[in-house]
Each structure stands twice: as C-alpha cells, then as structure tokens.
Design brief:
The complex is a heterodimer of chains A (about 110) and B (about 110). With about 110 residues, chain A is an all-beta fold. Chain A contains no helices and eleven strands. Helices cover about 0% and strands about 55% of the residues of chain B. Classes of the chains: A mainly beta (about 110), B mainly beta (about 110). Chains A and B meet through strand 5 and strand 10 of A and strand 5 of B.
Chain lengths: ~110, ~110
C-alpha cells in the first residue's frame, strides 16, 4: 500500500514568516510530486508540482524534493493570512493514480 | 475556463438506496476520477476512467461502481448505500499524461 505521510497540524506561523510543510512517501517508484491547497469547504487546487531532485520555485512557493530520503516539502515565504488552508501532498508513479496525504492545516496569524 | 460540475452539492439518502453521483467536464479531458475525502483519511481514489467505457479501480472501489458512456460524463454509483459511505465525494478530470488539476465542487453525501 503506497503511503504519503503528513502531520495534520495545525501549523501556526506569524504573518510574514516562512511556513515549512513536510511530507514523506513510501513508494520509491514515485516519479511525480504535487502540492495542492484546499480552503475550508472548497476543492483542492494544484499549486506546485516537481519531478526532479532539488528545488522548484514559483513566486512565494518553493517545492523541495529529496528522492533518496523520500521527502517532499513546501516552503511558503512571507506567509499571508490568505495562505491559511490545508495543504495536501500527493505522489504518483505517473499521473493517473495519485496518492494523497491527509493534509497539513496551516494557520497564518496576523 | 475549465469547468468540472457535479450534479448535487448536498445529498441525503437512506441506507440501502441506490445513489447516483454525476460529474461533467467541458474540456474534452480523457481522464476522469472519483475520490472521497474523509477527515483523518484524506483524499482516496475510488475509480478512474481514461476513456469512454474504460474504467480502473482505485484504492477503495468496494461498494461502488462507475459508468462512462460519454467522454464528458462520469457517474459514480452506490449500489446499496451504507452509513460508512457518508463522505465528501470529489470528481476530477485531466488530459492524458497531465497532472490532475481540475476538481469539481464536491458532493457531500449523508447516508442515514
């Protein structure tokens, strides 16, 4: 059974700080890694995806992948109250069968 | 603007009823997915379809079936609803070989 582990939180950070969200996965064959943001009562929204070891940056978001450690992280710089949401880590061997973690709830305190 | 729509936002059914959840997408996507989302368990894949009349089981297909007679429409069927199928059901779609980006608004199903 493929597993994706996340701490459910909540993770509380002050406004303007860096929020660091972490995820580990069990299947070494995983090739694609995703971060989704889900606001309360809404559907998930894809915010980042990464395939190669290292960092990928998009605006205030940086996804980090370490395949040897089977570890994925998402950094949010200059956190804003509007970033308060649940962040879902997801992994896939391709694109069709994506396994999701339970999500980490992030609270950005003004 | 891509749209994935689901037939109902909220649904209340009785144990033993046959339940149909419908999903429609307007972007000519090959892939369509049904997930359920439960607190503490996250999003779990029930079934997916990569073409008309094609389907594959996800991680938790027991108690569910699906139908895809037209490319734009993917139906989830609960043959005999049970209380443990009370959940949020999310439909998603994507082009073949692309990341799943588009989700519907969800159907919150309560089985009494």
């Amino acid at each position: 059974q493929k597993e994706v582990e996340q701490n459910s939180g909540p993770l509380s950070v002050p406004e303007g700080a860096i929020a660091s969200l972490n995820c580990t996965y069990s299947d070494r064959g995983s090739q694609s890694f995703f971060w989704y943001r889900q606001y309360s009562g809404k559907s998930p929204e894809l915010i980042m995806f990464i395939y190669s070891n290292g960092d990928k940056e998009d605006g205030r978001f940086t996804a980090q992948l370490n395949k040897a450690s089977q570890y994925v992280s998402l950094l949010i710089r200059d956190s804003q109250p509007s970033d308060s949401a649940t962040y879902l880590c997801a992994v896939s061997g391709g694109y069709q069968k994506v396994t999701f973690g339970i999500g980490t709830k992030l609270q950005v305190i003004p | 603007d891509v749209k994935v729509t689901q037939s109902s936002r909220y649904l209340v059914k009785r144990t033993g009823e046959k339940v149909f959840l419908e999903c429609v997408q307007d972007m000519d996507h090959e892939n369509m997915f049904w997930y359920r989302q439960d607190p503490g368990l996250g999003l779990r894949l029930i079934y997916f379809s990569y073409d008309v009349k094609m389907k594959e089981k996800g991680d938790i297909p027991e108690g569910y079936s699906v139908s895809r007679e037209k490319k734009e429409r993917f139906s989830l069927i609960l043959e005999s609803a049970s209380t443990n199928q009370t959940s949020m059901y999310l439909c998603a779609s994507s082009f073949s070989g692309q990341v799943t980006r588009y989700f519907g608004p969800g159907t919150r199903l309560l089985v009494l």
